[in-house]
Design goal:
With about 120 residues, the chain is α+β, with helices and mostly antiparallel strands. The chain has one domain (about 5-100). The protein is built from five helices and five strands. The strands form two sheets. It has a three-stranded mixed sheet, with helices on one face. Strand 3 and strand 4 form a beta hairpin. It is globular.
Length: about 120
């Protein structure tokens, strides 16, 4: 996979944020991201060496685009898979949270609590 494959990326930066899957919910914490993510540009500051410098960074493959349940529908790779009728992952409800900047005062929400610890 080369340049053409990487051009499918919409540069949304969501893959660089902490996320968790709870049943049919995909929770993305907008206040928690990889140490190499620049929130101003939504770009990786070590993109060329990201797989060496960041153990959490995983290469996007066609199989992940087809089956990974932690990718939002807005992902360009997911869009490619859907367009080609190759997306087989369950659809999830996306929930964006702000664990640091907007914590609720009295949260009984287990999806929020998972990121607070």
């Amino acid at each position: 996979m080369g340049k053409c494959w990487e051009e499918k990326c919409t540069k949304c930066g969501l893959c660089c944020h902490e996320k968790a899957v709870y049943g049919r919910n995909l929770v993305i914490d907008l206040d928690s991201w990889c140490e190499f993510f620049d929130p101003a540009t939504k770009q990786c500051t070590v993109y060329a060496k990201r797989f060496v410098q960041c153990a959490r960074c995983k290469k996007m493959t066609r199989l992940k685009a087809m089956f990974a349940t932690y990718l939002p529908d807005s992902c360009g790779y997911v869009g490619w898979a859907r367009h080609n009728h190759l997306r087989f992952a369950k659809r999830r409800f996306i929930r964006y949270i702000h664990s640091k900047t907007c914590p609720p005062e009295d949260s009984d929400d287990p999806l929020y609590d998972a990121f607070r610890a």
